[in-house]
């Protein structure tokens, strides 16, 4: 059945694909012209030329090849584009890169290709349990809405294999915040947080905040995503305390600039 679906995707005209997507998501009908993008809860008729950019698409496909986002059937291009854009912004700043919540490494692999990180004098720290959420860092509020420990397949060896040729990538296994002290970066220009629960994400944001240089960016993967309201509330409070504001994106992500 999967092969049949893939074959159909190859022969169905784009206009028909757009029409089917609108039928599939009746609450997300966009008006005003031809649908240019309909993925991951986001639909628009506006420009999305990044989908035609060869460097971005190669980077996206490398990320998907890690098994992230559904692998070769991944449909979250705009989310990955936001991450790549933020990394491209941060590459011009002093400081290292940190990602807390890596899973199989899709975002990091896309970033490395998109900005040629391999040839930069920066380090990229990748922190994760590589086997899902930790029970002790799931809040009571999150447990009440069904969030549980685990939920992800063991992928540590797979991640090590993915990044073995990148000498400036350091993989740190364990729970955040317990492993944060292993990050030896004195300055940080890029921080990605995608741990699906608020306690470790806020702990990481607090830990790195004073290390972040002016203009540094935090990418919040779940900030506005459906079902993650506790994280949104936590980061609204965090931003208020720091005197900044979270930029909410229609992808479900959020951005904070230092």
From TrEMBL:
<dbReference type="InterPro" id="IPR029063">
    <property type="entry name" value="SAM-dependent_MTases_sf"/>
</dbReference>
<dbReference type="Pfam" id="PF05711">
    <property type="entry name" value="TylF"/>
</dbReference>
<protein>
    <recommendedName>
        <fullName>Methyltransferase</fullName>
    </recommendedName>
</protein>
<dbReference type="InterPro" id="IPR008884">
    <property type="entry name" value="TylF_MeTrfase"/>
</dbReference>
């Amino acid at each position: 059945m999967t092969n049949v679906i893939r074959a159909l995707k190859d022969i169905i005209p784009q206009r028909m694909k757009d029409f089917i997507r609108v039928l599939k998501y009746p609450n997300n009908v966009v008006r005003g012209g031809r649908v240019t993008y309909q993925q991951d809860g986001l639909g628009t008729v506006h420009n999305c030329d990044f989908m035609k950019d060869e460097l971005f698409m190669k980077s996206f496909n490398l990320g998907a090849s890690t098994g992230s986002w559904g692998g070769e059937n991944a449909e979250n291009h705009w989310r990955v584009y936001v991450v790549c854009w933020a990394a491209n912004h941060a590459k011009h700043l002093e400081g290292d890169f940190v990602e807390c919540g890596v899973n199989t490494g899709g975002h990091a692999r896309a970033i490395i290709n998109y900005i040629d990180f391999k040839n930069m004098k920066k380090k990229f720290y990748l922190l994760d349990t590589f086997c899902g959420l930790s029970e002790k860092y799931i809040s009571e509020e999150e447990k009440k809405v069904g969030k549980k420990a685990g939920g992800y397949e063991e992928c540590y060896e797979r991640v090590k294999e993915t990044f073995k040729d990148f000498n400036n990538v350091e993989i740190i296994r364990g729970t955040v915040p317990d492993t944060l002290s292993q990050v030896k970066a004195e300055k940080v220009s890029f921080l990605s947080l995608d741990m699906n629960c608020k306690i470790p994400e806020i702990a990481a944001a607090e830990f790195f905040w004073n290390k972040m240089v002016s203009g540094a960016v935090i990418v919040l993967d779940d900030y506005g995503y459906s079902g993650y309201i506790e994280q949104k509330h936590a980061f609204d409070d965090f931003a208020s305390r720091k005197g900044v504001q979270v930029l909410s994106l229609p992808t479900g992500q959020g951005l904070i600039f230092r």
